[in-house]
Amino acid sequence: MTYDVIIIGAGPSGLTAGIYARSKMMKTLILDAAEVGGQLTALYPEKGIHNYPGFERIQARKLSDKLHAQAESLECEIRSHEKVMDINDGNEELVVVTTKGEYHTKSVIIAVGMGTFKPKRMGVKGEEEFEGRGLTYILPVKEELVGKKVVMFGGGNSAIDMALVSVTVTDTTIVHRRGEFRADESNVIALEESKIKRIMNAALVSVNGEDCVRSVTIEQNGKTFDLKADLAVINIGISSDLEDIKRWGVGLTESGLIKVDFEMRTTRPGIFACGDVVDYPGKYKQIITGCGEAGTAAVAAYKFVKKPYWA
Question: How many Å apart are CA 297 and CA 300, to the nearest integer?
Answer without folding.
Answer: 5
